[in-house]
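> run fold Proton-translocating NADH-quinone oxidoreductase, chain M
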Amino acid sequence: MGLITLSADIPWLSLIWLSMLVPAIIIAFIPDRYPDLMRWVGTGFALISLILSLLVFLAYDPVRGGFQFVEYLDWIPQLGISYLLGADGINLPMLLLNGIVIFTGALMSWNIEERIKEYWVWLLLLTTGVYGVFSALDLFLFFVFYELAVLPMYLLIGIWGSTRKEYGAMKLTLFLMAGSALVIIGMIGLYFGSGLRTFNMLVLAEQGFIAGDLQRLLFPALFVGFGVLAGMFPFHTWSPTGHVAAPTAVSMLHAGVLMKLGAYGCLRAAMWLMPIGARDWLPIVVILTILNVVYGASIAMVQRDAKFIIGYSSVSHMGLVVMGLAAGTQIAVMGAVLQMFAHGIMTALFFAVVGRMIYDRTHTRQLPELGGLGRVMPFAAAMFILGGLSSMGMPGLAGFWAEFNIFIGVWERYPLVAVIAALSIPITGAYILRAVWAVFYDEVKNPEFLHLPKLTWQEYSGALILALVLVGLGLYPAWMTELIDTGVRPLVARLGEVMVAMR
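> ok
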């Protein structure tokens, strides 16, 4: 049994994504003269979605395992399309992650003054799509929610962003649309190639329906298509540009959750459905992720813009996620899923500090122009340092357990890859410490920075929630790892069976 019991008659997973769609519709009808009401509605429903995702997380029965809270409805039976939702140890942490990030992101959005209604509507629609992707078990439904999550990014960055926002929005959109095109090819190929004429992932995942040659052909389309959103090398260049251009809450969702959609798609759609294709192609992916991990960290080291540092840091850390997935061992894949959660929380905290607390007050993110902010904003300094220590893999914080599992798991199959990737650890420490010194403890470059506005209750609350999750997961990772293990074990066993059979 789970820690709590929920009624089986209530469609809990549908309620989660509806808790974002409903406020988007409500806000669309609120008169423009009530901006605070829009903020309260958006933040209140974000809290509701967090509570719902937490309830489902706590109610999952790890002993029984498998997919629970399943909802099924024939949507378009003539085409084999169904409304099929379910939760297991892989997507439950992602649902909870999205709930935490959207609630804290909503708190960080109270400073938006331009076109408030449109901002909240698009932000909530984006989150609706994210919740849907993490719940869907029908490949067509998966793709519908995926597009709903990706498309609002163009407007959110293009209208409310900064620093070459039009360029950043267009570059992001073009890359992600190219990835979506590959995903469509993979979907259609599975639909016809399996001979089942269905998008039901539970059916497609059954052994024997998808021929080995077809898997080898279609696996790169699905994996690379989703890998574009995960920031996989060499398709990563859109990511730092998008991070820098996006407003704070969108940066939090962008790096904290959206990049995880890509990695989740690689795992759930490509690896789960096509284990034979995974066996043949993942060794190549492992080599590419070395460039992600070491190159991303090295480029972050030479950046002068604090947001670019976080952006390239995300490229490096997401490289570890894909590396763990590509290694295909139990510990590595579990570490990859844990890294998705830990990195999502850590990066959301980084952007909350840099984007909301610092940039909105100083109007600069350039390290040479900052300095001495630790005197004025000691809380912001503490939060940035906490996120930085997690990024460096400091024991006692969430990032340590995620990276430790990945490196151990990768070592089991590719020890040389693990050794080379470990070079990113000292580089990460170097650029984090450099940023901490330049922003908070170097001499004050601008005397006006000594009289900046005080932090708001929204900023304190949002950052504290993220920090508590980082510390809580770092001190007692079992509350997350045991759940993840129940979802990862069957998938890894499936990959292992294929590898043994092909020897």
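The two ends are 39 Å apart (CA to CA).
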